[in-house]
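Let's practice the habit of predicting before peeking. Look at the sequence and jot down your guess about where helices and strands might fall. Then scroll down.
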Amino acid sequence: MNKIITTPHLKSNDSIHSQSSTKTSNRADSSRKHRVDYVDLLKGITILWIIWIHTDHPEFGGYRNPIFFFASGIFFKILDAKTFFSKRVWMIIIPFIFFYLLSVLCRYLLDIWDTRTLDSFDWHRILDFTVITARQDYLSLNVPLWFLLTLFWIQTFSFIVFRFSKYIIGILAFLSIVFFEEIYSIPTPLMINNAVAWFGYFAFGYLMGKPLIKYLNSTSRKVKIFILTAVTVILCIGIESLEVELLERVITPFKYIVFIICFMTFFSFFDGKKYMDILRFYGKNSLIILGAHLWILIPVGRISFRLTGVHDPWIGLVSAIITAICLIPVIQFLSKYCAVFVGKRNS
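Done guessing? Here is the structure:
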């Protein structure tokens, strides 16, 4: 009799435990599926590249911004207005404000270092983001934060535009890219001109990213796409060397997009590889690195110049590597204690 009573009870608990484990596993699987590993690797190498670009570097930095905007567009989702703008606030606006305010303190200390006086800081710099200008880098407190403000406006535009057909989105993206310089030169407040100019790369990421990810499901396809895009980039560089303005207007952005596909395909060969963990770590924390790296890079760069007395890309590379290493505890601290403020967790 006891066996008849207890056995079902044990089976029930096992069933409940099994269902709970299954649900937990499904949530974990869902979380894993939400991220594409080689996109994190792509973002990781690009954010490290950006650190190098912000010190002494070779002249090949034009690809970095298209990569980030393209990658940002891949997983863009159209949600209801309340959810969409709530997420934008927590994932973009609050991190922007957080890093911007901390950058006031950082710049204040740097000015003291440079001038040895407390009165050297220009407090008008705090209002840089309100200035009507066509320049990309007027956020003098922390230049890279232009990307977050630009991304907010791009996603706001996309919330409206991406409801149209893919053909209309493609046409608008093409026009944004072809007339990039003209759009970029129009003075606006709050980086709106930047957002319209960079919208094309974000839109092409939205249109092409997921189909590309689905296509790269076999080694043979990866090899085919990688070779095809690599050859196309080389051909584009050859056409650019002709220096025909009308051709460059179309070929240069086309080259950037093909390069992104090539670069993304290259990292797909390393999907899930453990030895890429450090690159994966930087990719997953690219927002923190974007907002915080100048706090470390500027002092490191000034110390390296004091020691060497020269500006050189290889010295800049060493400074970038030192900065990337020093960022690891900063990333860990901010992720643990300031998660809400760095886009790691919703309220």
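How did you do? The first helix runs from residue 2 to 34.
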